[in-house]
Amino acid sequence: MSAPTDLPRNANDPAKSTRTTAAKAWAAALFSAVLAFLSSLLTALGGTDTGFDSITAGQWLTAVIAALIAFGGAAGLTYYVPNKPR
């Protein structure tokens, strides 16, 4: 599904919105994926006497799944929202 490019911003504004580029979607997706991955790892490492060697395979898998979901969600939602007219 591509972003809508010919919808007015509101009922009183007949101006068309500009075409959405994929650049902002890629930037949002990468930022969201990294943030979700690091947040998951930080949660897994939470504790006073834990280290990186205490992360289990399940916790790594959870971090990767969180990053993939954030990547896909951010890319899709960011690309779907059209840019405002210039």
User: How many beta-strand elements?
Assistant: 2
Mean pLDDT: 75
Shape: elongated
Q: What strand order characterises the main sheet?
A: 1-2
Computed structural class: mainly alpha
* Domain tally: 1
- Specify the number of helices: 2
> Helicity level, as a percent range?
40-55%
Q: Quick one: biggest sheet?
A: 2 strands, antiparallel
Q: Uncertain regions: pLDDT < 50 for 5+ in a row?
A: none
Distance between the termini: 24 Å
The SSE order reads EEHH
Strand-residue fraction?
Answer: 5-15%
Gyration radius (Cα, Å) is 19 Å
Sequence-ordered SSE layout with sheet pairings:
Blueprint: E1 8-10, E2 13-16, H1 22-44, H2 57-80
Antiparallel strand pairs: 1-2
Helix pairs in contact: 1-2
Architecture overview:
This protein has 86 residues and is mainly alpha-helical. The protein has two helices and two strands, in the order ββαα. The chain has helices spanning 22-44, 57-80; strands at 8-10, 13-16. Strands 1-2 form a two-stranded antiparallel ribbon. The longest helix is centred in the C-terminal third of the chain and has 24 residues, at 57-80.
Summed up:
The protein is mainly alpha-helical. The chain is 55% helix and 8% strand.
Task: For the structure shown, list the relevant keywords.
86 residues, single chain, two-stranded antiparallel sheet, mainly alpha
